[in-house]
From TrEMBL:
<dbReference type="GO" id="GO:0007596">
    <property type="term" value="P:blood coagulation"/>
</dbReference>
<dbReference type="InterPro" id="IPR014716">
    <property type="entry name" value="Fibrinogen_a/b/g_C_1"/>
</dbReference>
<dbReference type="InterPro" id="IPR002181">
    <property type="entry name" value="Fibrinogen_a/b/g_C_dom"/>
</dbReference>
<dbReference type="Pfam" id="PF25443">
    <property type="entry name" value="ANG-1"/>
</dbReference>
<keyword id="KW-1015">Disulfide bond</keyword>
<keyword id="KW-0964">Secreted</keyword>
<feature type="signal peptide">
    <location>
        <begin position="1"/>
        <end position="20"/>
    </location>
</feature>
<keyword id="KW-0037">Angiogenesis</keyword>
<keyword id="KW-0732">Signal</keyword>
<dbReference type="InterPro" id="IPR037579">
    <property type="entry name" value="FIB_ANG-like"/>
</dbReference>
<feature type="coiled-coil region">
    <location>
        <begin position="161"/>
        <end position="250"/>
    </location>
</feature>
<dbReference type="InterPro" id="IPR036056">
    <property type="entry name" value="Fibrinogen-like_C"/>
</dbReference>
<keyword id="KW-0175">Coiled coil</keyword>
<dbReference type="Pfam" id="PF00147">
    <property type="entry name" value="Fibrinogen_C"/>
</dbReference>
<feature type="domain" description="Fibrinogen C-terminal">
    <location>
        <begin position="277"/>
        <end position="402"/>
    </location>
</feature>
<protein>
    <submittedName>
        <fullName>Angiopoietin-1 isoform X3</fullName>
    </submittedName>
</protein>
<dbReference type="GO" id="GO:0005576">
    <property type="term" value="C:extracellular region"/>
</dbReference>
């Protein structure tokens, strides 16, 4: 039985060596096994069970309620002896196992050292391979990082160049913006000046409009007064027409007398011819000028009866057959007609522009023969109107030229 157990132990020892913790317990066949760990290795021992029912369960042993077996005392003594024998055998096994353990440890030292050395070499080789691989990967990564760094540097350089270009463009734009801002300020100043000038022009325009309105009102009042005067003149003209006929007869008689005196006084034909030539150049009014062949409107010299000096008048040769002697002309308001009695008596202004011929000259002209009066008006829009009277004559100063 001892030999069998030893052989079973060796088989168990040789078939199971591993690295684990020490553990005890039964196997599937009902036998117990022991594990002993030494260093990194574990030894497993299988022990067989004793024949017969040597042990009672703890439950049967300590449970007071369990039923006790009806066994004789002889069997109990035999079991005790057998148990003591087994304990003795177990002590022997234990001693033998300790020796065997020491033997195994001594014999396994070299193998374990060899295994460790091989493991170290394998580990070193593996580490070298891993290191080589890591170096290769590191070199590759370094190369890639170098390429990436180069690309980053190139990109950074391009970005710096682009940034410089953008900065330059920004500086130029800022400079242009400042120039445009300065120009805009100048334009604003000019606009302000123009607005101020426009406001001033509007004020002047308003003043001029007000002035024109006042002048228009004055002209309307003047037209009304002139209409009244014209009506009065028509009345006076009708009265003076009769007197004019008498004066014309007297004038004709005087002319005949003068011609007779000239004929009597002239001794030679040359003197008579010269006298007739001078007489032909003496125009009483614009009608004589027109009949003499002058058909252009302008300033001409006439010789009025009872007036010692010739008088320059404006003759209108275009309106209603021509030959009209202009006694008053107003056009642009350049001449002030707010005059006194003396100025209206002797006349004022220039015949080629705005003027008044003079009441004394009008009286002298209308006293020569029968005349017609034509009054023409034109407004600001160019609309014309006129009034014509077939007979016109005024009295002298004593009659207030009426």
């Amino acid at each position: 039985m001892t030999i069998f157990l030893s052989f079973a132990f060796l088989v168990a020892l040789l078939t199971h060596i591993g690295c684990s913790n020490q553990r005890r317990g039964p196997d599937s066949s009902g036998r117990r096994y022991n594990r002993i760990q030494h260093g990194q290795c574990t030894y497993t021992f299988i022990l067989p069970e004793q024949d017969g029912n040597c042990r009672e369960s703890t439950t049967d042993q300590y449970n007071t309620n369990a039923l006790q077996r009806d066994a004789p005392h002889v069997e109990q003594d035999f079991s005790s002896q057998k148990l003591q024998h087994l304990e003795h055998v177990m002590e022997n096994y234990t001693q033998w196992l300790q020796k065997l353990e020491n033997y195994v440890v001594e014999n396994m030292k070299s193998e374990i050292a060899q295994i460790q050395q091989n493991a170290v070499q394998n580990h070193t080789a593996t580490m070298l391979e891993i290191g080589t691989s890591l170096l290769s990967q590191t070199a590759e990564q370094t190369r890639k990082l170098t390429d990436v760094e180069t690309q980053v540097l190139n990109q950074t350089s391009r970005l710096e160049i682009q940034l410089l270009e953008n900065s330059l463009s920004t500086y130029k734009l800022e400079k242009q913006l400042l120039q445009q801002t300065h120009e805009i300020l100048k334009i604003h100043e000019k606009n302000s000046l123009l607005e101020h000038k426009i406001l001033e022009m509007e004020e002047r325009h308003k003043d001029e409009l007000n002035t024109l309105k006042e002048e228009k009102e004055n002209l309307q009042g003047l037209v009304l007064r002139q209409s009244y005067i014209i009506q009065e003149l028509e009345k006076q003209l009708n009265k003076a027409t009769n007197n004019n006929s008498v004066l014309q007869k007297q004038q004709l008689e005087l002319m005949d007398t003068v011609h007779s005196l000239v004929n009597l006084c002239s001794k030679e034909g040359v003197l008579l011819k010269n006298a007739k030539s001078e007489e032909d150049k003496s125009f009483r009014d614009c009608a004589d000028v027109y009949q003499a062949g002058f058909n252009k409107s302008g300033v001409y010299t006439i010789y009025i009866n009872n007036i010692s000096e010739p008088k320059k008048v404006f003759c209108n040769m275009e309106v209603s057959g021509g030959g009209w002697t202009v006694i008053q002309h107003r056009e642009d308001g350049s001449l002030d007609f707010q005059k006194g009695w003396k100025e209206y008596k002797m006349g004022f202004g220039t015949p080629s522009g705005e003027h008044w011929l003079g009441n004394e000259f009008i009286f002298a002209v209308t006293s020569q023969r029968q005349y017609s009066l034509r009054i023409e008006l034109m407004d600001w829009e160019g609309n014309r109107a006129y009034s014509q009277y077939d007979r016109f004559h005024i009295g002298n100063e004593k009659q207030n030229y009426s």
